[in-house]
Write a structure and sequence with these properties.
Elements: E1 13-16, E2 19-26, E3 30-35, E4 41-45, H1 46-52, E5 53-54, H2 68-73, H3 77-94, H4 101-112, H5 116-129, H6 137-140, H7 149-161, H8 170-185, H9 195-205, H10 216-223, E6 241-248, E7 253-254, E8 261-262, E9 264-271, E10 277-284, H11 289-301, E11 342-345, H12 354-362, E12 366-369, H13 379-391, H14 419-432, H15 454-465, E13 483-486, E14 493-495, E15 498-501, E16 523-528, E17 531-538, E18 545-550, H16 562-576, H17 581-593, H18 600-608
Parallel strand pairs: 6-11, 11-12
Antiparallel strand pairs: 1-2, 1-5, 2-3, 3-4, 6-9, 7-8, 9-10, 13-16, 14-15, 15-18, 16-17, 17-18
Helix pairs in contact: 3-4, 3-5, 4-5, 7-8, 16-17
GO biological process, one term: DNA integration
Pfam families: Mu-transpos_C
Organism: Micromonospora inyonensis
């Protein structure tokens, strides 16, 4: 009987799910077996038994390649014809014509001019493996490498040790290999291949590693790849996973204050299911938590398309869609929402700050950190950055390339785009090009060969998921801003030396707040660190947000950051040893209005002021209304701002990327 078959009959001993079992009953439909180790009986369907059954002894492998299909697939047309002709001769021998087999073997051997023993081997191989057994094994077996395996191991060890070092030459790497072999096994113990063979073998072992060629950055990235099959984070509907990441742009931007080039960063939020960009922000020098908060707000609440965009521009709003498919009997308010359920972020402090975590928790958004230095955890957003560079930024003036080796001469002299202009260009390119272009990674399982764009994939996701609803509130954006607690004086509120006032405070001046705990007697005020010209106050009577204006805010027509205000005080102290807040502020405002920047740090903050609009949309203008003080109000005799407590909850909200 053929060794590749197992006979299923009563008393047969086979392997099933790793255990030796004996067949005790078999009726053609089901099989009852007894486990030899435990004595337990099991009754299985025949299909289940066949799926997990194997012989107790593995059949002897007769083919060099181990598979009939692999053996025949490795033949050329001429070799296939030769094997077919040889199989025809074997079948002539096997056809019984009344004569003994040995006579037929002698006749066929004489006909072909071969030894009888050769024809006998053909017949035995044909009976065992069919035509695949007649293939000359020398044809399908490679010669392999004759280099000592210990030499190969040493090459791999040296390449692994030099991942973070500068790229060596091949001769230097081979010299290190020889030294390692002498250290491990002794001088001259391991035979070295010839110079030509060593170079050829090194090329084979170093293929795909950048060990002796290519960039060192690429070599480190290759070394950090997962060793094995890549996993995949699979989204089933829009909004299930939103991936956030920040990267330096490959284009210099213009600085309005000094008219010099500046490095810009792009923060994007990418929907994993549709590959649509649902939020972005271009910032100068570095990204702050408030910038990430602005991107998150845009991904939840959307952003209106400018009137200047072409009519065919597509920026799908992953909140309330234009077209819905749902049952008429389904209540309109009971559908799933499209607020991001899970955010995949880096381990950067700007992403994992208490500010971002607190707001995401309030919105019911889970945060899933990616592994450090593992671009493969966020391949979709990494690929978007490459698409942006190849599709847009490389065509812009002042393109500096992905690395220093690709940079031209004096490219910063070509910069003419301001930061907000660059953001507008990127947004329009995404709407008119990226969202409408076919994407190889967007596949519908039911129709795998259908090419889809991100905008089309959004329509598919809406059809699959059903309703999409966003639980948006008018003051949702302000939840992304840090909170400070202050008392309300007759002149308003004072935050970090800046006084804010507005009609919304009428009725609450010199009054204690109804809040308890750390806020006992004080009022929460929200301030945008990137633009301290305004603060926001929430009226406890109607829970509406109202804007408060800084007393010197009208002097500025551009956002003014908290960092800039603090730097103004440092300049004043360094100048004359005294400190006059009003004088320091006025001097700094005049210098910036004149375009004068004194040092690198001041220039850095001036860049932060160059954005034409803040990271978050402003609240509606306050509506004045008469209010009465709360019944529990207690009037204070003096300003106690100096003793106000700060809970430190947002201390890391302003950390920047390194």
């Amino acid at each position: 009987m053929n060794g590749n078959l197992v006979s299923v009959r009563v008393g047969a001993q086979v392997l099933f799910d790793g255990d030796v079992v004996r067949v005790v009953e078999f009726d053609g439909v089901g099989v009852t077996v007894r486990e030899e180790r435990s004595g337990r009986f099991r009754t299985l369907t025949l299909a289940r038994f066949v799926a997990g059954c194997a012989a107790t002894e593995a059949p002897e492998e007769t083919l060099a390649a181990g598979s009939v299909g692999t053996t025949l697939a490795g033949l050329t047309r001429a070799q296939v014809e030769q094997v077919a002709a040889r199989a025809g001769h074997v079948r002539d021998v096997l056809i019984e014509d009344g004569s003994p087999l040995r006579d037929r073997l002698r006749v066929k051997a004489a006909e072909l001019g071969l030894a009888v023993r050769t024809v006998q081997r053909w017949v035995a191989a044909y009976r065992r493996d069919g035509e695949a057994g007649l293939v000359d094994t020398r044809v399908i077996c490679g010669l392999g490498s004759r280099v000592d395996p210990r030499w190969d191991d040493a090459v791999r060890a040296v390449m692994a040790a030099k991942v973070n070092a500068s790229t060596p030459t091949r001769s230097a790497l081979l010299a290190a290999v020889s030294a390692l072999l002498d250290e491990r096994h002794g001088a001259g113990v391991v035979p070295r291949p010839s110079r030509a063979t060593a170079y050829r073998r090194l090329a084979e072992l170093a293929k795909g590693t950048n060990a002796v060629a290519g960039s060192a950055k690429g070599r480190r990235s290759i070394a950090d790849r997962p060793q094995g099959a890549y996993g995949r984070l699979r989204a089933t509907r829009p909004g299930e996973y939103v991936v956030l990441d920040t990267q330096d742009l490959d284009v210099f931007a213009m600085e309005p204050v000094t008219s010099r080039w500046v490095r810009a960063q792009l923060t994007v939020a990418l929907d994993l299911f549709t590959r649509c960009v649902v939020g972005l922000r271009v910032t100068a020098v570095s990204t702050k938590a408030v910038d990430v908060a602005g991107v998150l707000y845009e991904s939840v609440a959307g952003r209106p398309a400018p009137m200047s965009w072409p009519g065919d521009g597509a920026w799908p709003y992953h909140g309330v869609p234009q077209n819905l498919v749902f049952d008429e009997g389904m209540p309109a308010g009971d559908g799933p929402v499209c607020a991001p359920e899970t955010l995949v972020v880096d381990h950067g402090k700007v992403f994992l700050s208490a500010h971002v975590i607190a707001v995401c928790t309030r919105l019911g958004i889970s945060i899933q950190p990616a592994q450090p230095h593992k671009p493969t955890d966020k391949p979709t957003v990494e690929r978007f950055f490459r698409t942006l560079r190849e599709g847009l930024t490389q065509h812009l003036p002042a393109y500096k390339g992905p690395d220093i080796h690709a940079r031209g001469e004096r490219v910063e002299d070509e910069a003419f785009l301001f930061l907000h202009e660059m953001e507008d260009v990127i947004r329009e390119w995404i709407a008119t090009v990226y969202h409408r272009a076919k994407h190889d990674g967007l596949v519908v399982a039911e129709w795998p060969h259908l090419q889809l764009s991100p905008a089309e994939m959004f329509a598919v996701g809406v059809g699959k998921a059903g309703l999409l609803r966003i639980p948006a509130a008018p003051g949702l954006a302000l939840d992304f801003l840090p909170v400070v607690v202050r008392t309300i004086q007759h002149y308003g509120v004072e935050v970090h030396g800046l006084r804010y006032n507005g009609s919304a405070l009428d009725g609450y001046r010199n009054a204690r707040s109804p809040y308890g705990g750390v806020l006992a007697g004080k009022w929460p005020v929200r301030v945008n660190p990137d633009d301290v010209r305004h603060a926001w106050f929430q009226d406890p009577a109607d829970q509406r947000w109202h804007r408060l204006d800084w007393e010197h805010g009208p002097l500025l027509d551009t956002p003014f950051s908290a960092e800039a205000a603090a730097h103004a005080r440092r300049l004043a102290v360094a100048g004359d040893g005294g400190f006059e807040p009003a004088k320091a502020m006025v001097e700094l405002l005049h210098r910036w209005d004149a375009g004068l920047v004194t040092d690198r740090r001041e220039r850095r903050m001036a860049v932060r002021l160059s954005a034409e609009y803040a990271a978050l949309p402003a609240a509606d203008p306050p509506v004045p209304a008469p209010r009465a003080a709360p019944a529990c109000a207690v009037f204070a005799d003096s300003d106690d701002d100096d003793g106000d407590l700060d809970d430190g909850f947002y201390d890391d909200a302003f950390e920047v990327l390194s």
